Amino acid sequence: MTNAGPGRPRLTKQRRPGPTAQAEILDAAAELFTTKGFASTSTRQIAEMVGMRQASLYHHFATKDDILAALLEQTVTAPLELANRLAATTEPAAVRLYALLLFDSGQLMAGRWNLGALYLLPELRTERFSRFREERQQLRRRYRELAAAVLTELGTDDESRAGLPFRIVETVINERSDAEGGGTGTGEQSPVLLAEAGLRVLGWHDAESLRAQAERLLAATRSA
């Protein structure tokens, strides 16, 4: 038996990646939720994958819903914080939108498990997940505000396309699901391609020219 740090001792040596027992639990749960399904996964199965007692898992998370909420919030908290910081800068809206698309699509692609595939779970309609739903809606609004500002920079008041960049970045979720399931997903998406697509769909035809400026802004904003 080994000690997992704060909390209770585990039954085995560390089995999952992560600096803490809580991170290991989240990694194991993410794998099970995205491969077996949320309803089909028990906290006992999660604990077994981590190598700890079920009672020890409850030291970190009181319920399975709490684990799911923590995983979902990981997908929106960082991009929402970035979007709020970008809103306070004076860079052109097109550069800010490119930076947000670049970061958000990158984190959705880089995640060890395709957590966005959990967005359609019926359980997410309950009050327990209201914080996640609100944060995701706030992120959607930030995208729409930036897209509307880009359209203004282009000299058009047609906002019918303002919701498209957010939808484009979330194509990462379906692409990953298709690729991992042996379907039609090509796995050829990249954050740069999606960032440029998010600008082009608004009518910004020279989107690639924004990349260097957006990368500098992203680096400066994240280090601030």
Key terms:
single chain, 224 residues, mainly alpha, Arc Repressor Mutant, subunit A, 2 domains, 10 helices, elongated, disordered N terminus
Write the layout of secondary structure elements.
Elements: H1 21-35, H2 43-50, H3 54-60, H4 64-87, H5 93-110, H6 130-153, H7 164-169, H8 171-180, H9 191-200, H10 211-223
Helix pairs in contact: 1-2, 1-4, 4-5, 4-6, 5-6, 5-9, 5-10
What does this structure look like?
The protein is an all-alpha fold. It has two domains: 21-62, Arc Repressor Mutant, subunit A (Orthogonal Bundle); 68-223, Tetracycline Repressor, domain 2 (Orthogonal Bundle), CATH 1.10.357. Helix content is 60%, strand content 0%. The chain is built from ten helices and no strands. The chain has helices at residues 21-35, 43-50, 54-60, 64-87, 93-110, 130-153, 164-169, 171-180, 191-200, 211-223. Helix 1 packs across helix 4 (64-87) and helix 5 (93-110) runs antiparallel to helix 9 (191-200). The longest helix has 24 residues, at 64-87. The chain is elongated, with a radius of gyration of 20 Å. The termini are far apart.
Please give a quick description of this structure:
With 224 residues, the chain is mostly helical. It has helices at 21-35, 43-50, 54-60, 64-87, 93-110, 130-153, 164-169, 171-180, 191-200, 211-223.
What sort of overall outline do the alpha carbons produce when their principal axes are compared? elongated
> Helical region count?
10
| CATH fold-level label of the largest domain | Tetracycline Repressor, domain 2
What's the CATH C level of the largest domain?
A: Mainly Alpha
Order of helices and strands: HHHHHHHHHH
